[in-house]
Amino acid sequence: MFITRWIIFVLLKHFPLNVTGSHHDPRVTLTGEDVHVRRYSLNCSNRRIELLPGFPQNNSVYVGGHGKLWYLNFNRRNQSKKATFPALERKRSDRKPTAPGNYDVTTLHRVDATRLFVCGSNGNQPKCCLMTLDMVCIEDISPSGIAPFNVTERAPSLYIDNDVYAAVSREAKQNSVAIRRIGNKTHMWPEIAKQEQRYISMAFSGPREDQLQDKVYTFLVQESSDNHPEASAWNSWVTQVCKADMGGPKTMLQKSWTSRLSARLSCGIHDRKEYFNQLLDVAVLQADNWTQSRVYGLFRNGWGMTAICIYTMGDIDHVFKNSDFEGFTGAVPNPRPGEQCVKDSTKLPQKVLSHVKEYPNMRDWVWPVGRGGPLMVSHHDYKGIRADRVRGPGHKHYNVLLLSLDNGRIHKVLEHDAGVFIIAELQPFSTRTRIQNMLLQHSTKKLYVSSSSEVVEVDLSGCQSYGSLCVDCVQARDPYCSWSRTHCTATSRKGIQDVEHGNVSVCGQDGGSVPKPSGKKVEILPLASNHYLHCPMSSSHAEYSWRHGGQARECVPANGSCLLLINSMTSEEDGVYTCVASEGGYTRTLAEYRLQAESKARGLTPPSLALACLLLLLLIR
Known about the structure:
The protein is mainly β. The relative contact order is 0.11. The model is unreliable at about 1-20 and about 600-620 (pLDDT under 50). Its main location: membrane. GO terms for molecular function: chemorepellent activity; integrin binding; semaphorin receptor binding.
Protein backbone atom coordinates (compact mmCIF):
# COMPACT_ATOMS: atom_id res chain seq x y z
CA MET A 1 0.00 0.00 0.00
CA PHE A 2 2.86 2.37 0.91
CA ILE A 3 4.62 1.77 -2.44
CA THR A 4 1.40 2.16 -4.41
CA ARG A 5 0.61 5.49 -2.74
CA TRP A 6 4.10 6.80 -3.52
CA ILE A 7 3.96 5.73 -7.15
CA ILE A 8 0.59 7.42 -7.64
CA PHE A 9 1.99 10.52 -5.99
CA VAL A 10 5.09 10.67 -8.21
CA LEU A 11 3.19 10.03 -11.42
CA LEU A 12 0.57 12.67 -10.72
CA LYS A 13 3.18 15.14 -9.47
CA HIS A 14 5.32 14.99 -12.57
CA PHE A 15 2.67 14.21 -15.20
CA PRO A 16 -0.38 16.30 -14.26
CA LEU A 17 -3.54 16.30 -16.36
CA ASN A 18 -6.04 19.09 -16.83
CA VAL A 19 -9.58 18.49 -15.59
CA THR A 20 -11.96 20.16 -18.02
CA GLY A 21 -15.34 19.04 -19.27
CA SER A 22 -15.46 17.53 -22.78
CA HIS A 23 -18.90 17.51 -24.36
CA HIS A 24 -17.61 15.24 -27.14
CA ASP A 25 -17.56 12.38 -24.64
CA PRO A 26 -20.34 10.76 -22.58
CA ARG A 27 -21.33 12.75 -19.53
CA VAL A 28 -21.55 9.63 -17.35
CA THR A 29 -20.62 5.96 -17.69
CA LEU A 30 -23.21 3.40 -16.58
CA THR A 31 -22.41 -0.27 -16.12
CA GLY A 32 -24.83 -3.18 -16.04
CA GLU A 33 -25.07 -2.61 -12.28
CA ASP A 34 -26.15 1.00 -12.79
CA VAL A 35 -28.88 0.47 -15.40
CA HIS A 36 -31.67 -2.06 -15.45
CA VAL A 37 -30.59 -4.89 -17.76
CA ARG A 38 -31.84 -8.44 -18.18
CA ARG A 39 -29.67 -11.09 -19.79
CA TYR A 40 -30.30 -14.26 -21.73
CA SER A 41 -27.44 -16.60 -22.50
CA LEU A 42 -27.67 -18.46 -25.81
CA ASN A 43 -25.24 -21.09 -24.51
CA CYS A 44 -23.37 -21.15 -27.81
CA SER A 45 -21.27 -18.94 -30.07
CA ASN A 46 -22.86 -17.40 -33.16
CA ARG A 47 -21.15 -15.75 -36.12
CA ARG A 48 -24.29 -13.76 -36.91
CA ILE A 49 -27.34 -12.73 -34.91
CA GLU A 50 -30.67 -11.59 -36.38
CA LEU A 51 -33.24 -9.89 -34.14
CA LEU A 52 -36.99 -9.42 -34.60
CA PRO A 53 -39.55 -7.95 -32.17
CA GLY A 54 -41.65 -10.59 -30.48
CA PHE A 55 -45.41 -10.35 -30.88
CA PRO A 56 -47.96 -9.91 -29.60
CA GLN A 57 -46.21 -9.80 -26.20
CA ASN A 58 -44.02 -6.88 -25.24
CA ASN A 59 -40.51 -7.41 -23.84
CA SER A 60 -39.91 -10.35 -26.14
CA VAL A 61 -37.71 -10.93 -29.16
CA TYR A 62 -37.02 -13.56 -31.81
CA VAL A 63 -33.35 -14.40 -32.28
CA GLY A 64 -31.73 -16.17 -35.23
CA GLY A 65 -28.26 -17.65 -34.78
CA HIS A 66 -26.13 -20.66 -35.63
CA GLY A 67 -28.53 -23.46 -36.48
CA LYS A 68 -31.04 -22.18 -33.93
CA LEU A 69 -34.03 -19.90 -33.48
CA TRP A 70 -35.00 -18.55 -30.07
CA TYR A 71 -38.08 -16.85 -28.77
CA LEU A 72 -36.99 -14.92 -25.69
CA ASN A 73 -39.59 -13.54 -23.30
CA PHE A 74 -37.81 -11.37 -20.75
CA ASN A 75 -40.96 -10.90 -18.67
CA ARG A 76 -41.86 -14.59 -18.51
CA ARG A 77 -38.77 -16.67 -19.00
CA ASN A 78 -40.71 -19.91 -18.76
CA GLN A 79 -42.37 -18.99 -22.07
CA SER A 80 -39.04 -18.74 -23.91
CA LYS A 81 -38.46 -21.39 -26.58
CA LYS A 82 -35.70 -22.72 -28.82
CA ALA A 83 -35.93 -24.49 -32.18
CA THR A 84 -33.51 -25.95 -34.71
CA PHE A 85 -33.15 -24.31 -38.12
CA PRO A 86 -33.78 -25.79 -40.55
CA ALA A 87 -36.03 -28.33 -38.85
CA LEU A 88 -35.43 -32.05 -39.11
CA GLU A 89 -36.81 -33.18 -42.48
CA ARG A 90 -38.54 -36.43 -43.52
CA LYS A 91 -39.04 -36.57 -47.27
CA ARG A 92 -40.39 -40.12 -47.56
CA SER A 93 -41.36 -42.72 -45.01
CA ASP A 94 -38.85 -45.22 -46.43
CA ARG A 95 -35.93 -42.86 -45.93
CA LYS A 96 -34.00 -41.92 -42.85
CA PRO A 97 -34.53 -38.36 -41.69
CA THR A 98 -32.06 -35.86 -43.11
CA ALA A 99 -30.28 -33.99 -40.36
CA PRO A 100 -30.27 -30.20 -40.46
CA GLY A 101 -27.15 -28.61 -41.90
CA ASN A 102 -24.74 -26.18 -40.37
CA TYR A 103 -26.96 -23.18 -41.05
CA ASP A 104 -26.67 -19.59 -39.83
CA VAL A 105 -29.88 -17.55 -39.85
CA THR A 106 -29.41 -14.56 -42.17
CA THR A 107 -32.99 -13.32 -42.71
CA LEU A 108 -35.77 -12.93 -40.16
CA HIS A 109 -39.07 -11.15 -40.86
CA ARG A 110 -42.62 -11.04 -39.62
CA VAL A 111 -45.17 -12.03 -42.29
CA ASP A 112 -48.40 -11.51 -40.35
CA ALA A 113 -49.90 -12.23 -36.94
CA THR A 114 -49.21 -15.97 -37.23
CA ARG A 115 -46.14 -16.48 -39.43
CA LEU A 116 -42.42 -15.74 -39.73
CA PHE A 117 -40.20 -15.70 -42.81
CA VAL A 118 -36.76 -17.17 -42.10
CA CYS A 119 -33.69 -17.86 -44.25
CA GLY A 120 -30.35 -19.37 -43.38
CA SER A 121 -27.13 -20.35 -45.10
CA ASN A 122 -24.47 -23.00 -44.68
CA GLY A 123 -22.19 -21.17 -47.13
CA ASN A 124 -23.24 -23.48 -49.91
CA GLN A 125 -27.00 -23.76 -50.24
CA PRO A 126 -29.35 -21.32 -48.47
CA LYS A 127 -32.77 -22.35 -47.20
CA CYS A 128 -35.91 -20.29 -46.60
CA CYS A 129 -39.26 -21.17 -45.13
CA LEU A 130 -42.46 -19.82 -43.66
CA MET A 131 -42.71 -20.67 -39.98
CA THR A 132 -45.34 -20.51 -37.29
CA LEU A 133 -44.77 -18.35 -34.22
CA ASP A 134 -43.77 -21.59 -32.51
CA MET A 135 -40.91 -21.74 -35.06
CA VAL A 136 -42.18 -24.75 -37.00
CA CYS A 137 -41.53 -24.67 -40.75
CA ILE A 138 -44.82 -24.99 -42.67
CA GLU A 139 -43.69 -24.15 -46.22
CA ASP A 140 -40.34 -24.20 -48.02
CA ILE A 141 -39.59 -21.06 -50.06
CA SER A 142 -37.01 -20.85 -52.84
CA PRO A 143 -34.02 -18.93 -51.47
CA SER A 144 -32.68 -17.91 -54.88
CA GLY A 145 -31.96 -14.20 -55.04
CA ILE A 146 -33.29 -13.37 -51.58
CA ALA A 147 -31.00 -15.26 -49.17
CA PRO A 148 -27.23 -14.68 -48.99
CA PHE A 149 -24.77 -17.54 -49.36
CA ASN A 150 -22.15 -15.97 -47.11
CA VAL A 151 -23.03 -15.51 -43.46
CA THR A 152 -20.92 -12.32 -43.34
CA GLU A 153 -22.77 -10.62 -46.21
CA ARG A 154 -24.87 -7.70 -44.94
CA ALA A 155 -27.79 -8.58 -47.29
CA PRO A 156 -30.48 -6.08 -46.15
CA SER A 157 -34.08 -7.05 -46.92
CA LEU A 158 -37.71 -6.03 -46.38
CA TYR A 159 -40.93 -8.03 -46.28
CA ILE A 160 -43.79 -5.92 -47.68
CA ASP A 161 -47.24 -7.22 -48.74
CA ASN A 162 -46.02 -10.81 -49.23
CA ASP A 163 -43.04 -9.65 -51.29
CA VAL A 164 -39.40 -9.95 -50.23
CA TYR A 165 -37.08 -7.14 -51.34
CA ALA A 166 -33.46 -8.18 -50.89
CA ALA A 167 -30.01 -6.94 -51.89
CA VAL A 168 -27.91 -10.10 -52.00
CA SER A 169 -25.41 -11.98 -54.15
CA ARG A 170 -27.04 -14.63 -56.31
CA GLU A 171 -23.86 -16.71 -56.60
CA ALA A 172 -21.76 -18.15 -53.80
CA LYS A 173 -18.35 -17.08 -55.12
CA GLN A 174 -19.12 -14.12 -57.37
CA ASN A 175 -19.99 -10.48 -56.88
CA SER A 176 -23.54 -10.87 -58.18
CA VAL A 177 -25.31 -8.55 -55.77
CA ALA A 178 -28.45 -6.73 -56.94
CA ILE A 179 -31.80 -5.52 -55.60
CA ARG A 180 -34.34 -8.25 -56.24
CA ARG A 181 -37.97 -8.90 -55.43
CA ILE A 182 -39.63 -12.29 -54.95
CA GLY A 183 -43.26 -12.86 -54.07
CA ASN A 184 -46.75 -12.09 -55.34
CA LYS A 185 -45.70 -9.41 -57.80
CA THR A 186 -43.48 -9.92 -60.83
CA HIS A 187 -40.12 -11.35 -59.80
CA MET A 188 -37.39 -8.80 -60.47
CA TRP A 189 -33.95 -9.99 -61.61
CA PRO A 190 -31.97 -6.91 -62.73
CA GLU A 191 -28.53 -6.94 -64.29
CA ILE A 192 -25.46 -6.95 -62.05
CA ALA A 193 -23.68 -3.61 -61.57
CA LYS A 194 -20.28 -3.27 -63.21
CA GLN A 195 -18.72 -1.70 -60.11
CA GLU A 196 -18.51 -3.53 -56.80
CA GLN A 197 -21.37 -2.63 -54.46
CA ARG A 198 -22.05 -3.34 -50.80
CA TYR A 199 -25.58 -2.85 -49.60
CA ILE A 200 -26.12 -1.38 -46.13
CA SER A 201 -29.83 -0.95 -45.47
CA MET A 202 -33.34 -0.87 -46.95
CA ALA A 203 -36.23 1.41 -45.99
CA PHE A 204 -39.87 1.74 -47.00
CA SER A 205 -40.67 5.24 -48.29
CA GLY A 206 -44.33 5.68 -47.46
CA PRO A 207 -47.16 5.18 -47.00
CA ARG A 208 -47.88 8.02 -49.37
CA GLU A 209 -51.26 9.64 -49.98
CA ASP A 210 -51.41 7.76 -53.26
CA GLN A 211 -50.06 4.36 -52.27
CA LEU A 212 -49.27 3.60 -55.90
CA GLN A 213 -46.35 5.99 -55.38
CA ASP A 214 -44.86 4.04 -52.45
CA LYS A 215 -41.16 3.27 -52.96
CA VAL A 216 -38.31 1.29 -51.46
CA TYR A 217 -35.02 3.08 -50.80
CA THR A 218 -31.79 1.11 -50.61
CA PHE A 219 -28.58 2.54 -49.14
CA LEU A 220 -25.22 1.26 -50.34
CA VAL A 221 -21.56 1.98 -50.88
CA GLN A 222 -20.06 1.60 -54.34
CA GLU A 223 -16.47 1.29 -55.45
CA SER A 224 -15.23 4.67 -56.61
CA SER A 225 -14.26 5.19 -60.24
CA ASP A 226 -12.02 8.14 -59.29
CA ASN A 227 -8.37 7.09 -59.72
CA HIS A 228 -6.94 10.15 -57.94
CA PRO A 229 -4.50 9.05 -55.19
CA GLU A 230 -6.41 11.01 -52.54
CA ALA A 231 -9.87 9.91 -53.68
CA SER A 232 -11.98 7.70 -51.42
CA ALA A 233 -12.17 4.03 -52.35
CA TRP A 234 -15.94 4.01 -51.72
CA ASN A 235 -18.83 6.40 -52.30
CA SER A 236 -22.25 6.31 -50.68
CA TRP A 237 -25.52 6.16 -52.61
CA VAL A 238 -29.28 5.86 -52.18
CA THR A 239 -31.36 4.00 -54.77
CA GLN A 240 -35.11 4.09 -55.36
CA VAL A 241 -37.48 1.54 -56.91
CA CYS A 242 -41.26 1.71 -57.13
CA LYS A 243 -43.11 -0.89 -55.10
CA ALA A 244 -45.56 -1.24 -58.02
CA ASP A 245 -42.80 -1.74 -60.61
CA MET A 246 -43.51 -4.78 -62.83
CA GLY A 247 -40.45 -4.43 -65.03
CA GLY A 248 -40.37 -3.65 -68.73
CA PRO A 249 -41.74 -5.52 -71.76
CA LYS A 250 -39.92 -8.45 -73.36
CA THR A 251 -37.98 -6.09 -75.63
CA MET A 252 -36.30 -4.11 -72.81
CA LEU A 253 -35.80 -4.33 -69.03
CA GLN A 254 -37.96 -7.42 -68.69
CA LYS A 255 -37.96 -8.40 -65.00
CA SER A 256 -35.69 -5.42 -64.37
CA TRP A 257 -36.53 -2.22 -62.55
CA THR A 258 -37.99 0.53 -64.76
CA SER A 259 -38.03 2.99 -61.84
CA ARG A 260 -34.55 2.53 -60.43
CA LEU A 261 -32.64 5.80 -59.96
CA SER A 262 -29.57 6.47 -57.81
CA ALA A 263 -28.18 9.57 -56.11
CA ARG A 264 -25.01 10.27 -54.13
CA LEU A 265 -25.24 11.03 -50.43
CA SER A 266 -23.29 14.08 -49.25
CA CYS A 267 -21.79 14.06 -45.76
CA GLY A 268 -18.93 16.37 -44.92
CA ILE A 269 -17.64 19.75 -43.78
CA HIS A 270 -17.12 21.20 -47.21
CA ASP A 271 -15.43 24.48 -46.29
CA ARG A 272 -12.76 22.43 -44.50
CA LYS A 273 -12.71 19.73 -47.18
CA GLU A 274 -13.44 16.99 -44.67
CA TYR A 275 -15.57 14.33 -46.30
CA PHE A 276 -17.13 11.16 -44.94
CA ASN A 277 -17.67 8.89 -47.92
CA GLN A 278 -18.15 5.41 -46.49
CA LEU A 279 -21.62 4.65 -45.17
CA LEU A 280 -21.59 2.23 -42.22
CA ASP A 281 -25.19 2.01 -41.06
CA VAL A 282 -28.61 3.65 -41.43
CA ALA A 283 -31.49 4.27 -39.02
CA VAL A 284 -34.90 5.57 -40.12
CA LEU A 285 -37.18 7.48 -37.76
CA GLN A 286 -40.67 7.33 -39.25
CA ALA A 287 -42.92 10.40 -39.09
CA ASP A 288 -46.69 10.71 -39.57
CA ASN A 289 -45.96 12.52 -42.83
CA TRP A 290 -43.58 10.30 -44.82
CA THR A 291 -41.74 13.35 -46.25
CA GLN A 292 -40.59 14.24 -42.70
CA SER A 293 -39.27 10.77 -41.88
CA ARG A 294 -35.62 11.17 -40.96
CA VAL A 295 -32.79 9.06 -42.30
CA TYR A 296 -29.71 8.96 -40.03
CA GLY A 297 -26.57 7.88 -41.87
CA LEU A 298 -23.47 6.80 -39.94
CA PHE A 299 -20.34 7.47 -42.02
CA ARG A 300 -16.58 7.04 -41.71
CA ASN A 301 -13.67 8.77 -43.40
CA GLY A 302 -10.21 7.52 -44.31
CA TRP A 303 -8.77 8.71 -40.99
CA GLY A 304 -11.10 6.58 -38.87
CA MET A 305 -13.34 9.48 -37.79
CA THR A 306 -17.10 8.92 -37.81
CA ALA A 307 -19.94 11.32 -38.59
CA ILE A 308 -23.74 11.34 -38.57
CA CYS A 309 -25.66 13.08 -41.33
CA ILE A 310 -29.45 13.46 -41.39
CA TYR A 311 -31.63 13.39 -44.49
CA THR A 312 -35.39 13.39 -44.94
CA MET A 313 -37.41 11.11 -47.18
CA GLY A 314 -38.83 14.25 -48.77
CA ASP A 315 -35.37 15.61 -49.68
CA ILE A 316 -34.37 12.28 -51.23
CA ASP A 317 -37.61 12.18 -53.21
CA HIS A 318 -37.03 15.77 -54.39
CA VAL A 319 -33.65 14.85 -55.90
CA PHE A 320 -35.11 11.89 -57.79
CA LYS A 321 -37.95 14.04 -59.16
CA ASN A 322 -36.05 17.22 -60.05
CA SER A 323 -32.34 16.60 -60.58
CA ASP A 324 -30.78 16.47 -64.04
CA PHE A 325 -29.47 13.09 -65.10
CA GLU A 326 -25.71 12.59 -64.87
CA GLY A 327 -24.08 12.47 -68.31
CA PHE A 328 -27.28 13.41 -70.16
CA THR A 329 -27.74 16.76 -71.93
CA GLY A 330 -30.71 16.18 -74.26
CA ALA A 331 -34.45 16.54 -73.76
CA VAL A 332 -35.75 14.37 -70.93
CA PRO A 333 -38.42 11.88 -72.14
CA ASN A 334 -42.04 12.30 -71.12
CA PRO A 335 -43.11 11.00 -68.66
CA ARG A 336 -39.94 11.80 -66.72
CA PRO A 337 -38.15 8.50 -65.95
CA GLY A 338 -38.66 7.35 -62.37
CA GLU A 339 -40.65 10.41 -61.31
CA GLN A 340 -44.04 8.71 -61.04
CA CYS A 341 -44.82 5.06 -60.32
CA VAL A 342 -47.31 3.55 -62.77
CA LYS A 343 -49.74 0.64 -62.56
CA ASP A 344 -48.26 -1.18 -65.56
CA SER A 345 -44.60 -0.41 -66.20
CA THR A 346 -44.53 -2.83 -69.15
CA LYS A 347 -46.40 -0.18 -71.15
CA LEU A 348 -43.91 2.64 -70.57
CA PRO A 349 -42.58 4.25 -73.79
CA GLN A 350 -39.36 2.82 -75.21
CA LYS A 351 -37.58 6.17 -74.77
CA VAL A 352 -38.32 6.17 -71.05
CA LEU A 353 -37.01 2.63 -70.62
CA SER A 354 -33.86 3.38 -72.63
CA HIS A 355 -33.20 6.47 -70.51
CA VAL A 356 -33.54 4.56 -67.24
CA LYS A 357 -31.14 1.92 -68.53
CA GLU A 358 -28.49 4.34 -69.82
CA TYR A 359 -28.74 7.26 -67.35
CA PRO A 360 -29.87 5.97 -63.94
CA ASN A 361 -27.77 8.39 -61.82
CA MET A 362 -28.78 11.85 -60.65
CA ARG A 363 -26.45 14.79 -61.17
CA ASP A 364 -27.51 16.41 -57.88
CA TRP A 365 -26.49 14.90 -54.54
CA VAL A 366 -28.73 14.38 -51.53
CA TRP A 367 -27.66 16.90 -48.89
CA PRO A 368 -28.24 16.74 -45.14
CA VAL A 369 -31.20 18.69 -43.75
CA GLY A 370 -30.87 22.41 -44.34
CA ARG A 371 -28.02 21.73 -46.79
CA GLY A 372 -25.78 21.64 -43.75
CA GLY A 373 -22.96 19.43 -42.54
CA PRO A 374 -22.91 16.50 -40.15
CA LEU A 375 -24.99 16.53 -37.00
CA MET A 376 -22.00 15.03 -35.23
CA VAL A 377 -18.32 14.31 -35.94
CA SER A 378 -16.53 12.04 -33.49
CA HIS A 379 -13.22 10.34 -32.80
CA HIS A 380 -15.18 7.37 -31.44
CA ASP A 381 -15.20 4.30 -33.67
CA TYR A 382 -18.95 3.88 -33.96
CA LYS A 383 -20.26 0.78 -35.75
CA GLY A 384 -24.06 0.90 -35.65
CA ILE A 385 -26.91 3.36 -35.15
CA ARG A 386 -30.53 3.22 -33.96
CA ALA A 387 -32.91 6.16 -33.48
CA ASP A 388 -35.88 6.79 -31.20
CA ARG A 389 -38.39 9.59 -30.65
CA VAL A 390 -39.20 10.30 -27.00
CA ARG A 391 -42.20 12.26 -25.78
CA GLY A 392 -41.50 14.56 -22.87
CA PRO A 393 -43.72 16.66 -20.59
CA GLY A 394 -45.78 19.24 -22.47
CA HIS A 395 -46.09 17.02 -25.57
CA LYS A 396 -42.62 17.98 -26.77
CA HIS A 397 -40.63 15.32 -28.63
CA TYR A 398 -36.90 14.62 -28.61
CA ASN A 399 -34.80 12.41 -30.86
CA VAL A 400 -32.30 10.05 -29.25
CA LEU A 401 -29.58 8.06 -31.02
CA LEU A 402 -28.06 4.80 -29.78
CA LEU A 403 -24.55 4.32 -31.18
CA SER A 404 -22.63 1.08 -30.74
CA LEU A 405 -18.85 0.88 -30.36
CA ASP A 406 -16.47 -1.96 -31.18
CA ASN A 407 -15.87 -2.70 -27.48
CA GLY A 408 -19.47 -3.66 -26.70
CA ARG A 409 -20.50 -0.30 -25.30
CA ILE A 410 -23.28 2.05 -26.45
CA HIS A 411 -23.52 5.82 -26.45
CA LYS A 412 -26.91 7.36 -25.70
CA VAL A 413 -27.01 10.64 -27.62
CA LEU A 414 -29.50 13.51 -27.54
CA GLU A 415 -30.12 15.36 -30.79
CA HIS A 416 -30.99 19.02 -30.24
CA ASP A 417 -30.90 22.32 -32.09
CA ALA A 418 -27.30 23.08 -31.19
CA GLY A 419 -26.02 19.65 -32.19
CA VAL A 420 -25.71 16.65 -29.89
CA PHE A 421 -25.25 15.89 -26.22
CA ILE A 422 -23.81 12.51 -25.27
CA ILE A 423 -25.96 11.59 -22.30
CA ALA A 424 -24.24 8.42 -21.19
CA GLU A 425 -22.06 5.48 -22.11
CA LEU A 426 -23.90 2.23 -21.42
CA GLN A 427 -21.99 -0.96 -20.69
CA PRO A 428 -24.58 -3.73 -21.12
CA PHE A 429 -22.03 -6.56 -21.18
CA SER A 430 -19.85 -7.60 -18.27
CA THR A 431 -16.77 -8.01 -20.50
CA ARG A 432 -15.43 -6.44 -23.68
CA THR A 433 -17.20 -7.95 -26.69
CA ARG A 434 -18.31 -7.21 -30.23
CA ILE A 435 -21.92 -6.18 -30.69
CA GLN A 436 -23.57 -8.34 -33.35
CA ASN A 437 -26.89 -6.53 -33.61
CA MET A 438 -29.22 -4.01 -31.96
CA LEU A 439 -33.02 -3.88 -31.94
CA LEU A 440 -35.00 -0.95 -30.55
CA GLN A 441 -38.60 -1.50 -29.47
CA HIS A 442 -40.11 1.98 -29.64
CA SER A 443 -43.30 1.15 -27.74
CA THR A 444 -41.55 -0.26 -24.66
CA LYS A 445 -38.37 1.84 -24.83
CA LYS A 446 -36.26 -1.29 -24.60
CA LEU A 447 -33.02 -1.82 -26.50
CA TYR A 448 -31.97 -5.40 -27.27
CA VAL A 449 -28.26 -5.85 -27.80
CA SER A 450 -26.62 -9.11 -28.85
CA SER A 451 -23.11 -10.42 -28.65
CA SER A 452 -22.13 -13.77 -30.17
CA SER A 453 -23.47 -15.64 -27.13
CA GLU A 454 -25.84 -13.36 -25.23
CA VAL A 455 -28.85 -11.10 -25.71
CA VAL A 456 -29.28 -8.23 -23.25
CA GLU A 457 -32.40 -6.13 -22.71
CA VAL A 458 -31.57 -2.55 -21.70
CA ASP A 459 -34.29 -0.38 -20.17
CA LEU A 460 -33.67 3.03 -21.74
CA SER A 461 -36.01 4.65 -19.22
CA GLY A 462 -34.08 3.30 -16.24
CA CYS A 463 -33.22 6.58 -14.53
CA GLN A 464 -32.31 5.82 -10.92
CA SER A 465 -28.60 5.65 -11.73
CA TYR A 466 -28.35 9.41 -12.34
CA GLY A 467 -28.71 10.19 -8.65
CA SER A 468 -31.17 10.74 -5.81
CA LEU A 469 -31.61 14.50 -6.22
CA CYS A 470 -33.54 16.67 -8.65
CA VAL A 471 -30.34 18.37 -9.83
CA ASP A 472 -28.84 14.98 -10.72
CA CYS A 473 -31.90 14.04 -12.76
CA VAL A 474 -32.21 17.38 -14.58
CA GLN A 475 -28.52 17.72 -15.42
CA ALA A 476 -28.60 14.27 -17.05
CA ARG A 477 -30.69 15.83 -19.87
CA ASP A 478 -32.12 12.41 -20.63
CA PRO A 479 -35.50 12.66 -22.45
CA TYR A 480 -36.46 9.27 -21.03
CA CYS A 481 -36.18 10.59 -17.46
CA SER A 482 -37.78 13.27 -15.29
CA TRP A 483 -37.95 14.20 -11.61
CA SER A 484 -41.13 13.02 -9.93
CA ARG A 485 -40.64 15.18 -6.80
CA THR A 486 -39.21 12.19 -4.94
CA HIS A 487 -36.89 10.39 -7.38
CA CYS A 488 -35.63 10.25 -10.97
CA THR A 489 -37.95 8.03 -12.98
CA ALA A 490 -39.39 7.43 -16.44
CA THR A 491 -40.72 10.63 -18.00
CA SER A 492 -44.27 11.48 -16.98
CA ARG A 493 -46.68 14.27 -17.87
CA LYS A 494 -46.01 16.10 -14.61
CA GLY A 495 -42.31 15.26 -14.43
CA ILE A 496 -39.62 17.93 -14.08
CA GLN A 497 -36.88 18.09 -16.71
CA ASP A 498 -34.92 20.52 -18.89
CA VAL A 499 -33.59 18.46 -21.78
CA GLU A 500 -32.46 21.47 -23.82
CA HIS A 501 -30.16 23.04 -21.21
CA GLY A 502 -30.09 20.95 -18.03
CA ASN A 503 -30.90 24.09 -16.03
CA VAL A 504 -31.46 23.04 -12.42
CA SER A 505 -33.52 26.14 -11.65
CA VAL A 506 -36.55 24.10 -12.77
CA CYS A 507 -36.12 22.14 -9.54
CA GLY A 508 -37.04 25.20 -7.46
CA GLN A 509 -37.14 24.28 -3.80
CA ASP A 510 -38.10 20.69 -4.65
CA GLY A 511 -34.73 19.05 -4.61
CA GLY A 512 -32.84 22.02 -6.01
CA SER A 513 -30.41 22.34 -3.10
CA VAL A 514 -27.70 19.80 -2.47
CA PRO A 515 -26.83 19.06 1.15
CA LYS A 516 -23.28 20.01 1.99
CA PRO A 517 -21.18 16.94 2.80
CA SER A 518 -20.33 16.70 6.47
CA GLY A 519 -16.64 17.24 7.14
CA LYS A 520 -14.61 14.29 8.25
CA LYS A 521 -12.92 14.27 11.61
CA VAL A 522 -9.53 15.95 11.69
CA GLU A 523 -6.82 13.85 10.07
CA ILE A 524 -3.43 14.20 11.79
CA LEU A 525 -0.59 13.94 9.26
CA PRO A 526 3.15 13.75 9.92
CA LEU A 527 5.23 16.79 9.02
CA ALA A 528 6.84 16.63 5.56
CA SER A 529 4.65 13.68 4.61
CA ASN A 530 2.84 13.47 1.31
CA HIS A 531 -0.90 12.91 1.07
CA TYR A 532 -3.68 12.92 -1.48
CA LEU A 533 -7.42 13.52 -1.16
CA HIS A 534 -10.18 11.85 -3.20
CA CYS A 535 -13.21 13.47 -4.81
CA PRO A 536 -15.73 11.50 -6.95
CA MET A 537 -16.04 12.60 -10.60
CA SER A 538 -19.61 11.67 -11.49
CA SER A 539 -19.84 13.81 -14.65
CA SER A 540 -17.14 14.12 -17.31
CA HIS A 541 -18.75 17.40 -18.45
CA ALA A 542 -18.17 19.14 -15.13
CA GLU A 543 -15.11 21.14 -14.12
CA TYR A 544 -13.56 20.10 -10.82
CA SER A 545 -11.32 22.01 -8.43
CA TRP A 546 -10.09 21.91 -4.85
CA ARG A 547 -10.26 24.92 -2.53
CA HIS A 548 -8.21 25.59 0.57
CA GLY A 549 -7.68 28.80 2.45
CA GLY A 550 -9.58 30.82 -0.12
CA GLN A 551 -7.39 29.61 -2.98
CA ALA A 552 -7.97 27.08 -5.78
CA ARG A 553 -5.71 24.06 -5.81
CA GLU A 554 -4.74 21.78 -8.70
CA CYS A 555 -7.02 18.80 -9.32
CA VAL A 556 -5.80 15.67 -11.07
CA PRO A 557 -8.10 12.91 -12.43
CA ALA A 558 -7.30 9.26 -11.70
CA ASN A 559 -9.59 6.22 -11.81
CA GLY A 560 -12.82 8.22 -11.63
CA SER A 561 -11.60 10.48 -8.83
CA CYS A 562 -10.30 14.02 -8.71
CA LEU A 563 -7.16 13.94 -6.55
CA LEU A 564 -5.50 16.71 -4.59
CA LEU A 565 -1.79 16.11 -3.97
CA ILE A 566 -0.09 17.50 -0.92
CA ASN A 567 3.64 17.40 -1.55
CA SER A 568 4.89 18.05 1.95
CA MET A 569 2.63 18.47 4.95
CA THR A 570 3.33 21.59 7.04
CA SER A 571 1.32 23.75 9.37
CA GLU A 572 0.50 25.97 6.37
CA GLU A 573 -1.38 23.05 4.87
CA ASP A 574 -3.67 22.82 7.88
CA GLY A 575 -7.37 23.51 7.37
CA VAL A 576 -10.46 22.56 5.43
CA TYR A 577 -10.24 21.23 1.87
CA THR A 578 -13.35 21.20 -0.31
CA CYS A 579 -13.82 19.69 -3.77
CA VAL A 580 -16.34 21.51 -5.96
CA ALA A 581 -17.81 20.67 -9.37
CA SER A 582 -19.20 23.25 -11.78
CA GLU A 583 -21.51 22.27 -14.62
CA GLY A 584 -23.98 24.35 -16.59
CA GLY A 585 -23.53 27.32 -14.29
CA TYR A 586 -24.29 25.24 -11.20
CA THR A 587 -21.67 24.55 -8.53
CA ARG A 588 -21.84 21.99 -5.76
CA THR A 589 -19.50 20.73 -3.07
CA LEU A 590 -18.73 17.04 -3.42
CA ALA A 591 -16.18 16.33 -0.71
CA GLU A 592 -14.70 17.98 2.38
CA TYR A 593 -11.63 17.10 4.50
CA ARG A 594 -9.97 18.63 7.61
CA LEU A 595 -6.20 18.17 7.87
CA GLN A 596 -3.69 19.06 10.60
CA ALA A 597 0.08 18.62 10.69
CA GLU A 598 1.76 16.91 13.64
CA SER A 599 4.10 19.00 15.73
CA LYS A 600 6.95 16.57 15.08
CA ALA A 601 7.86 14.76 11.91
CA ARG A 602 7.42 11.02 11.93
CA GLY A 603 7.82 8.34 9.30
CA LEU A 604 10.12 7.96 6.40
CA THR A 605 11.58 10.73 4.32
CA PRO A 606 9.85 10.80 0.90
CA PRO A 607 11.89 8.76 -1.56
CA SER A 608 13.59 10.45 -4.45
CA LEU A 609 12.07 10.59 -7.91
CA ALA A 610 14.62 8.02 -9.11
CA LEU A 611 13.56 5.58 -6.42
CA ALA A 612 9.89 6.14 -7.22
CA CYS A 613 10.53 5.45 -10.90
CA LEU A 614 12.43 2.28 -9.99
CA LEU A 615 9.51 1.10 -7.87
CA LEU A 616 7.16 1.83 -10.74
CA LEU A 617 9.25 -0.26 -13.13
CA LEU A 618 9.33 -3.14 -10.67
CA LEU A 619 5.56 -2.97 -10.27
CA ILE A 620 4.99 -3.01 -14.04
CA ARG A 621 7.23 -6.05 -14.42
